[in-house]
Design goal:
alpha+beta; Endonuclease III, domain 1; 41% helix
């Protein structure tokens, strides 16, 4: 066993995290659920969502049988909604192809929607004790610093070198403790900002620490200006209901309930006239800024109140929803913020 692995395993026993709700189990369903939720999301944010999902869907079979609206409603606010759709598709795949039993083979785990090489290795390690390297964002940072690997980890050649290092460090035993130690080290000590190098169990062999250049690793993503987009969202209210529109199953906020959108205020009022009559003077609500990975969005909500509703087409993805119940719907976070200001709304 390498000195690196031995030091990490010993450190994890006394200083690692041991009380997370998905630990202390070999249940691949719970482990898979937590690993996907933890992609690009901090532990403190994930814990209540994980517990709610398990309470609602205690088995993969029950999850697979769920309505997608229920899945998205539970996921609402956690972000990166493709993960929720992939989770649901993966659960159905496990039931349909593997008779409800998660496969042990890493290639079969990688075949599940939303499960890549690193996530599959983590599931295999924690559920089956299988030896395999992980390389999530935290681990990339640890290895880039420890070996002073230049370049942004998202570049193919840098990622290949990181995978090579990760594979070379794997211990022959105690793979669960080692894998958890890597995760814990990156999350608690080898942080992106203000790393706690003095407490690090492998600082003696860390190349970046030895040269006082920890802040230089890993190199940041090459800077480029995010495109700026703008939209007007129509907040159309009739009595105690608000009009919601279901997004297409793919794309931004796929499958979630949202507010009807238009390019400008005139377009939003034209939309309102299609769904209701007796419109009062419109009122602009506070702008909401929301960031995505590839662009930034400014949302300009326009509130309009109507005296009468017009019939909705039966096939249209539209619904009048009580304002007091909108928090129970699968809504994007910025839409929740917009609707929270309406009289009678329940805080998100």
């Amino acid at each position: 066993m390498s000195d690196f692995a031995a030091r990490l395993i010993a450190w994890q026993v006394t200083h690692g995290r041991h009380d997370l709700p998905w630990q202390g189990t070999r249940d691949p369903y719970r482990i898979w659920l937590s690993e996907v939720m933890l992609q690009q999301t901090q532990v403190a944010t994930v814990v209540p969502y994980f517990e709610r999902f398990l309470a609602r869907f205690p088995t993969v079979a029950e999850f697979a049988a769920a309505d997608e609206n229920d899945v998205l409603r539970l996921w609402s606010g956690l972000g990166y909604y493709s993960r929720a759709r992939n989770l649901h598709a993966a659960a159905r795949h496990v039931v349909a192809v593997h008779d409800g039993v998660f496969p042990r083979e890493r290639h079969a785990l990688e075949a599940l929607p939303g499960v890549g090489r690193s996530t599959a290795a983590a599931i295999a390690a924690f559920a089956y004790g299988e030896r395999g390297a992980i390389l999530d964002g935290n681990v990339k940072r640890v290895l880039a610093r420890h070996f002073a690997i230049p370049g942004w980890p998202g570049m193919p050649q840098v990622e290949r070198e990181l995978w090579t290092r990760a594979d070379s460090l794997l211990p022959d035993s105690a793979i669960e403790s080692y894998t958890q130690a890597l995760m814990d080290l990156g999350a608690t000590l080898c942080r992106g900002r203000a790393p706690l190098c003095a407490l690090c169990p492998v600082k003696a062999t860390c190349a970046a620490h030895a040269t006082g250049s920890v802040a230089a690793y890993p190199a940041p993503r090459p800077r480029r200006a995010l495109p700026q987009r703008s939209t007007v969202m129509l907040v159309l209210v009739h009595e105690d209901d608000v009009l919601l529109e279901k997004r297409p199953p793919t794309g931004v906020w796929g499958g979630l309930w949202c507010l009807p959108e238009a390019e400008d205020g005139r377009g939003a009022l034209a939309l309102a006239a299609r769904f209701a009559s007796g419109l009062g003077p419109p009122r602009r609500l506070a702008k909401v800024a929301h960031g995505f990975t590839h662009f930034a969005l400014d949302i300009h909500p326009l509130l309009a109140r109507a005296e009468r509703r017009l019939p909705l087409l039966a096939e249209a993805p539209l619904a009048w929803t009580p304002i007091t119940r909108v928090r129970d719907e699968a809504l994007p976070a910025p839409v929740r913020r917009i609707l929270a200001v309406l009289p009678g709304a329940v805080a998100p």
